[in-house]
Amino acid sequence: MNAPELILIVDDIPSNLAVLSETLNAEGYDVAIATSGERALKQIEQLLPDLILLDIQMPNMDGFTVCQKLKL
Question: Which of 33, 34, 38, 62 is the most buried (most CB within 10 A)?
Fold first, then answer.
């Protein structure tokens, strides 16, 4: 049996994280969350997710910057 896919949700709004993680968990996905771009990058260094749902408008490091750093 294959392990469920891992989805990383990156958002600075806790209610968005809660709704998305509950919905995806109910569908059988493993979910990791990060509340900032910096935290997301640190998590990705440890474990590469199958999919990243990335908020664009976040303080300090926006989603575009996170995406650029991931491409390096």
Answer: 34
Collapsing DSSP to helix, strand or coil, 8 comes out as strand
Distance CA 7, CA 17 (A): 12
Helix, strand or coil, per DSSP, at residue 43: helix
Report pTM: 0.90
Residue 22's φ and ψ, nearest 5 degrees, are -65, -45
The answer for residues whose C-beta is within 8 angstroms of residue 60's C-beta and 6 or more apart is 36, 37, 38
Residues 47 and 6 sit within 8 Å (Cβ to Cβ):
yes
User: How many other C-beta atoms lie within 10 A of the C-beta of residue 29?
Assistant: 15
> Hey, is 52 helix, strand or coil?
strand
pLDDT at position 67, please?
93
Helix or strand run (H / E) with residue 30 = strand 30-34
